[in-house]
Design brief:
The complex is a heterodimer of chains A (about 325) and B (about 240).
Chain A lengths: L1 H15 L5 H20 L2 H25 L8 H17 L4 H23 L4 H21 L1 H4 L5 E2 L5 E2 L2 E2 L3 H23 L2 H11 L1 H6 L4 H27 L1 E2 L6 H14 L6 H15 L7 H15 L23
Antiparallel strand pairs in A: 1-4, 2-3
Helix pairs in contact in A: 3-8, 3-11, 3-12, 3-13, 4-5, 4-11, 5-11, 9-11, 12-13
Chain B lengths: L11 E10 L2 E11 L4 E5 L6 H8 L6 E6 L2 E2 L5 H7 L1 E4 L11 H8 L7 H14 L1 H5 L10 H14 L4 E5 L7 H16 L3 E6 L2 H7 L2 E6 L2 E7 L7 H8 L1
Parallel strand pairs in B: 3-8, 3-9, 6-7, 7-8
Antiparallel strand pairs in B: 1-2, 1-4, 4-5, 9-10
Helix pairs in contact in B: 3-6, 4-6
The chains are: A mainly alpha (about 325), B alpha/beta (about 240).
Amino acid sequence: MRSNRIMTLRASISTRTGGYGYVAIGGGVLLAALFAFVFIKGGYLLTVMQLAMIYGVFCIGLNFFMGYTGQASFGQNAFAAIGGYGTAILCVEYGWEPVLALLASMAIAGVASIVVGYPTLRLRGHYLAMATFALGLITYDLSVQWTSLTKGYMGYAGIPPLGIGPFTVEDERMKLVCLMVLLLIGLWISGRLRNSRFGRALRAISTSEPGAAALGIRIPQYKLAAFIIAALYASAAGSLFAHVVGFISPEVFGLQMVVVTFTMLYVGGIGTVLGPAIGAVVASLLPEIVRSTGRFQDIAYALVLLVLLIYVPKGLSALSALGRPRAAEPGTTG
Amino acid sequence: MTADSPSSHALIEVNGLSASYGHVAALKPVDLRVEEGEFVTVLGPNGAGKTTLLRAISRLIGSSGRITFRGRNISALPTHHLAKLGIIMVQEGRGLFGEMTVRENLLLGAYGIGNSNDEMERRFEQVFKLFPKLREREGQVAASMSGGEQQMLAVGRALMAGPKLLMLDEPSLGLAPKVAAGILDTLGELNRNGLGILLVEQKAPLALKLARRVYVLSSGSVRAELPAHEIKSHHDLARFYFH
C-alpha cells in the first residue's frame, strides 16, 4: 500500500518535472542564475567564465575519446596548441578572417590527429596514455623551440577578436554569450552523437572491445574517429582562447591544461553529455570561491576536489538522477 | 566415434584449430563442423578449452588452423567481419553493455544493418515475440536486470544481428534450472526454424535434449564426436555427464 503511494508520488513528480528530477532542475536553475550573476556583475569573474566556456568546449571533445570510448589521452593539449597557433599565425601574419582561421586550424588538427592517431591507437591502456602524453610534450617543446613559427616564450600577441566580416565581438559580455552559444552547440552535437548508432558503438567499445567487435563494430576506425572529434574540439578551444584573450604562449597549452581538463571531466562526470560543461564551470569557479582562504587556497581547492571525487565519484552530473523516478523496478527472477 | 556423414559445404567447418595462452596450449588441433540448421553441443569439464574454442572461431584470440563458413575460408578475417557474415557469439557472462538500456543493447545487436528502420523494427518484433519480458524492460538499464532477463537480452541481441550461426558459451551459467531450461527451449525453437547453433555447455542433460551431435572436449582436444542420443550408451561419458 505504502509502496504504491510512493510509486504514485514518483509518477506525479515525473509528470510535473517532465521526466527530470528536482535536483536536475535545481542544478539547471542554479547554473542559469550563476551565469546571470556573472553577466551582470562583469569584471574578473566574466573572464573566468569565458575561460570556463572554452575549457568546456575542450572537455566535450575529450569526453568523446575518454568518456564515450573509454580510452586515455594525455595529449589533447597538442591539438589545442595547433588550434591556438594556427589561428594566431593565420590571423596575425596573413590577415585571415577569424572564423576562417578557426576552421582552417581545425582542419589542420584533424589531419594531424589522423597522422598521429593511426599508429598510436593500436596501443591500449597505459601504453596509449604514455604515447599521447609524449605527443603533448613534443608539441609543447615544438612551441617553445620553433621560434620562427611560434615566437617561443614571447608568444603571439595582437590576435583579433572573434568575428565575421565587419562584425567583431569585442564587448566582454558579448564574448561570453558567444562562447556559451558555441558551448551549447558543442553539447548538442555531443548529445546527438552519443545517442546515435555511432555513439552507441563508441560506448560499446568503452565497455568491452571484444564484445563490440563480435557485433561487427570496427574498433580501430571508431577509436580513430573519436580521437579526431576530440582533436577538432580541442583545436576549436585553442582558437577560441586565442581570439578571446588575444595572446598565446607555450604555457597556455602545457601540462597544466591536461591536469585542469582531466579535473573538469571527472568533477563534471566523464561519459555523460553535460558533465564536461558542468565540470568546466565548477572547476573554473572553485579557485575563486576558495580565494578567501588566502594562503590556504590551494589546500582548500584540493580538499573540495577530494570531497567531490569521494562522495560524487560519477561526477556532479550524476546528481541529476537524484529525485528522478525509476523507469521500472528491477527484475527479480532467475 | 563418428557421426553422420557430412554434406559438401558445412555451415561452419574447423580443421586443425589450435590456440594457446603464452606457452600453454589451450586448444590442440581440433576438427569440428556444424551443418546448415544443425544443433551441435560441445561438452567438457572446466578448463577443457570450450570457451577458447568459441573465442578462436570468433577470432577474439589468435589461433592457427582453417575455418570455412559455407565453403568460404574465413581463417584470416577479423572478428567484426565474421559478424557481418552472420557468425554471432553470445559470450560467457553474457557480455552485455551494462550501462546501456535494453533497447540500446538490442540496437547494437543490429549494428550491421545500418539505419534501416523497417528491418530494425521487424527484428525488434521478432525478439519481443520470443522474449516478451524484454519489451516490458525496454527502457531499463541492462545491469539492473536479473540473470535470466540478462541472458534473454544476450540471446535477443544476438538475434538482432540476423545470425546464420549462433554460438553460445554456457548460457545456463548462474541461472536457476527453470530459467535455464526456458532459455534452452527458446534455442530449440530457433533451431527448429533453421538456425544453426553451436552450444558450449556443462549442463549436459538440458543441452543434449536439443543437440543432434555432440563433441566432447577435454584438455583442449576432441575426445569424442557422436550423435547426441548415443551418449547415454557410452558408460564412461554418461557417468561423467549425467551423475
